[in-house]
Amino acid sequence: MELALTPALTKHLKNPGIFRDLAEGPGPSVAKKRKRLAVFNPSTGELLAEVTDMSAEDARAAIEKAYIAQEPWAHLTARERSNVLWEWHRLILEHSDDLAAILTAEMGKPLAEAKSGVQHAAAYLQWYAEEANRIYGETISAPSNDRRMLVIKQPIGVVGAITPWNFPASMVARKISPALAAGCTVILKPAEQTPLVAGAMIALAKLAGFPDGVINLVYASVGDTIGRELCTNPKVRKISFTGSTEVGRLLMRQCSDQIKRMSFELGGNAPFIVFDDANVDAALDGAIRAKFRNAGQTCVSANRIYVQSWVYAEFTEKFTKRARTLKVGDGFDPDVTIGPLIDRDALTKIEAHVEDALQKGARVRCGGRRVGTSGTFFEPTVITDVVGSMRLAQEETFGPLAPIIRFEDPDHVVSDANDTIYGLAAYFYASNLKRVWRVAEALEYGMVGINTGRMSSEAAPFGGIKQSGIGREGSRHGLEDYLEMKYLCMGGL
């Protein structure tokens, strides 16, 4: 596949040639000369690159390559697969500055955050390079002496992975490194807004020594056609998807006829609760991190900030003051802490949430408007006098909008926090140990941050309950999601 980088991107790279030369990567090269997918910088509107806009036919060819490569890859020893993952990890770190620059250019986030994202991607590769050697079975005591009973674990097979635009490096690694460690081959479809860092990572994977067909990259401007092919093609045994709950429902329906295995990390509506016995300054730091990281464009972003009445005034005043100090702008500016939103649709959504809140009696304490006439920038925004009927309390905003809600009753706030179809992440701050255990166990979420605003780690299981997903990524549990359990019973002994 062709990859045409423009000076708007290459000016930020130390070694652009390595990504041009290896643009084909280990993926399919069947795409014909036809439509191109243009990738733009959301901060400046500049054209960064053009890639081949692929079709269902190309996805089908990629699946065929992965299917052919599946058995030889699974047949390698765990140590052999581990060694290739280790080498990929080394190359990611070696080229981390360029990967971060690509990420900032196509997604907009501040360069420091992009560098952290690349380091996080490398951490997943390291973790699963180690875990590849720890796929264990078990023996079972047989009911008679003439039999032996045991369990082995084998790779599921070909995996279709669909990654989002908000963490385009770490999500690639988090999805496909456990699949590769388990012995599965992969077709990767990155988000159309941010395909470049995924392409650069797969280029490095080719250098690392992955055999042809083990990792297959499919670029496409229309994800529906690729997703449908991955879900309905019987040679694909599993789908791993991160994105909206609406798209997750669609993919689940498409997979249902084949009872295909699925891992979905879907939408969130994370509550952030500050109780009156909390360390207010610590809660403030955690809330700023959980709300404004990545301009609020994270699935675990604090979407509803509940503050108990005794500390409400202090917290709100300090939070608003901190929000006003955040600098919005181009991610390559070293002083910038909040980059652009991903596109114009994201701007429209956050503006609609602000307008709806104002019409229902909310008060804007700071922000609330676009920044400049170019780019997709929006001010860090704090809104108070929030009630549950407002859209920003019911929907995931995915932007730098912080609604602060006063509460009195500790039991009632947990009920309010759980009153959503989503169950991905929740946060709360408290010091009373009895309260900590009670609230942590009562919150209906797959992940709970207690006195911390950040909890993602390659060593921990990441995922949600209710309509926020199925399965887990990261940790040893993330590897299990790519393995089938087989029971063997040997008789006649």
UniProtKB/TrEMBL annotation:
GO terms for molecular function: glutarate-semialdehyde dehydrogenase (NADP+) activity; succinate-semialdehyde dehydrogenase (NADP+) activity. Its EC number is 1.2.1.16, 1.2.1.20, 1.2.1.79. Keywords: Oxidoreductase. SUPFAM superfamilies: ALDH-like (SSF53720). It is an enzyme of class 1 (oxidoreductase). The lineage of its organism: Bacteria, Pseudomonadati, Pseudomonadota, Alphaproteobacteria, Hyphomicrobiales. The active site is at E265. This is Succinate-semialdehyde dehydrogenase/glutarate-semialdehyde dehydrogenase. Pfam families: Aldedh. Residues 32-487 form the Aldehyde dehydrogenase domain. PANTHER family: SUCCINATE-SEMIALDEHYDE DEHYDROGENASE, MITOCHONDRIAL (PTHR43353:SF5). The keyword Oxidoreductase applies. InterPro entries: Ald_DH/histidinol_DH, Ald_DH_C, Ald_DH_CS_GLU, Ald_DH_N, Aldehyde_DH_dom, Aldehyde_DH_Superfamily, Succ_semiAld_DH. Belongs to the aldehyde dehydrogenase family.
